Amino acid sequence: MVCRARRACVVSPCAWSGPAVVSALAEILAALLFCWADAFAMELGPARPPHGATSFASALHNPPFGPVQTAAFFQGEATTLSVPPLVPQAAEIAVGPVFFWVMLAVFLAVALFLGVRFRALRKRLQRGARALAESEERFNMLVDVSLFGVAIVHEGLLLEANERYFEMFGYAPEELLGRDILPLTVAPGHVAAVREGDCLVRACALESVGLRREGSTFPVEFRSSPFTYRGKPAVGIAVTDISARKRREDERISLQERLQSLWNVARMIEADYDELCKVVLEEILRLTRSEYSFFGFFDEAEEAMEVYAWSPEAMDVCSVGEGVRKFPVCGGGLWTEAVHRKRSVIHNDYRENPELKKGLPEGHVPINRLMSVPYIRDGRVYALATVANKPTGYTEEDAEQVGAFVANVMLLVDRQRVLEDRRISEKRVTMAFDAASDAVWDLRFDSDDTYLSPRWYTMLGYEPNEFPFSEEKLLSLIHPDDVGEIITLLHRHWDTGETYCAEYRMRTKDGGWRWILARGEVVERDYLGNPVRMLGTHVDISARKRLEDRLRRREHDLKKSQNIARLGSWHLDLINTTMVWTDELRKMYGLSPDAEPLPHTEFGRLFCPEDEK
After folding, report:
1. Which band of pLDDT confidence, cut at 50, 70 and 90, is reported for residue 602?
2. How many other CB atoms are there within 10 angstroms of residue 176's CB atom?
3. Interatomic CA distance for residues 175 and 184, integer angstroms
4. pTM of the model
């Protein structure tokens, strides 16, 4: 088999890409393969090639291009290589068996496959590079617009950071890059804790206090994670301003403390007025973490304040005005400013010289901070809570917290006042009824909360509260002949509102009977109109009943005696001009027992004319 071979190529440095290298290597290997095939054919065929034929081995040992051109080709310089035919006149190459050409075809196919694969790989690498660049761009954008600061630190020195980081601490990038950031961005008292936490070396999460360029501080949270940055070990730090979260936590704690304080006060509902005010004072001290305080109420004219509670610490130290509880507003000190302005007043530097400051008398407790919070209702100052000497400065939040607490407490105080007034009123009423020998009863039909005054028991010979009240016990004390009438009168009062007034007998402890005059009225009904509460009195009318009975007996005896003696009598009321005749007198004059007596002006008609004169 004869084959013509001519090669010509131009090679430049910029053309040595992956596929180009593969193609060049394939051509060189093909030439070597031709040499090997030629030698293999000479071993199997004639001793020498046909006339005019040139072997691959001779061509390889005597190349048509010189050494300089060959070196230039392999050094990658731009060189034009012209490979003349191995035989000047269309040389024909003797070829061995078919195995050689099969191997050549396989080799060329593999070279072509590798070139295509390398080209596809290059495209994939290019797409991956573009995607990585886009991902880095998106990541940088997200970091720049994030709400937390991001910094990359190597051995404490700042390498890179986003804009939020510099804004958070108030620095320009050139002021922090390449510098130790801890002394510049962490409050002095917290730098050591951050270093001990190894947040600049290992992964950690730590809360600390940040330091701004102008010197102000704010709570921050550090979260760090180590990684390799440009071949060097570094730490990525995320810094978050947690001021809002801390405020919410403080508000939650304040609310819990306020609720606990209200609960402590609510448990004192049975305490007297002074004890309740003392508890309020203790809770105000605890809420504000103050050293001294007092709590007082004003008169209606707001001219004077009566202090109901002093903090024990102040009483232990202060020796001014022991026993004094009432203070005039006119001429008062700083606490009166809240009364005049009708709002909370804060003085965090008592050394200042406010307009109303009068100075401290000898023996007064030392004051460095003061806050007064008034309780205002309907435009009038009712109460005032004043605290002093908090370790840190008072804030508007402290004033709002104390104001809210006092407002809630005043509801309990008002209720306590109402209960106290009610107890005093009931005591006065009870004393009045006791003085009048009347008993008081207060019945509730929806519960067992019934009140019977001590006189109710003693009226029947029992000791006060000797037995609990019940409907069965009450009915057992009433005379059986009177129960029906009492029930009828009660239902008539409940249904029509007619006044309830009944006279009945009740059994005494020694077994006797006493006549009772009962009066009552429904004072509370439910939404259906049914009676819920009824108030009334009991009056012992046994003496009156005995007198009435005695009078009835005497009248009966008089009538009997007049009937036996056939005597009649009459009575003339000169004021009302009315006459009363006895039955015997009516009989004497022939009048029926139910006839109306003659008026006194016609009384003379009963006599003879001669006797009338």
Report:
1. low
2. 20
3. 10
4. 0.42
Q: Is the pLDDT of residue 157 over 50?
A: yes
Question: How many Cα atoms occupy the beta-carbon half-sphere of 463 within 13 Å?
Answer: 2
Rg (CA), the chain: 60
Q: What's the confidence (pLDDT) of residue 516?
A: 93
The count of other CB atoms within 10 Å of the CB of residue 104 is 14
> Token pair of 354, please?
């406010």
Among the listed residues 90, 54, 52, 83, the one whose alpha carbon sits nearest the alpha carbon of residue 66: 83
28 vs 380, higher pLDDT: 380
Alpha-carbon gap, residue 559 to 566, rounded angstroms: 10
b/e map 560-598, b = 16+ CB within 10 Å: eebeeeeebeeeeeeeeeeeebbebbbeeeebeeeeebb
Sign of CA pseudo-dihedral 164, 165, 169, 173 = negative
How far is the C-alpha of 377 from the C-alpha of 508, rounded, in Å? 54
pLDDT band at 307 (very low <50, low <70, confident <90, very high): confident
Distance, in Å, from the CA atom of 255 to the CA atom of 225, rounded to the nearest integer, reads 37
Cβ–Cβ under 8 Å, residues 577 and 550: no
Q: Please give the order of strands across the beta sheet that includes 204-211.
A: 157-161, 149-154, 232-241, 217-229, 204-211
The structure tokens listed for 146 are 């994030």
Q: What are the Cα distances from residue 387, in Å, to 281, 371, 391?
A: 9, 5, 12
Q: What band does 285 get if pLDDT is binned at 50, 70 and 90?
A: confident
- Residue found by looking up tokens 């009676």 in the block: 531
Residue with token string 């009226």: 459
Residues 6+ apart with CB under 8 A from 59: 35, 86
The full length of the chain comes to 613
What CA–CA distance (Å, rounded) separates 176 from 183?
11
Pull the structure tokens for residue 552.
Answer: 């009835």
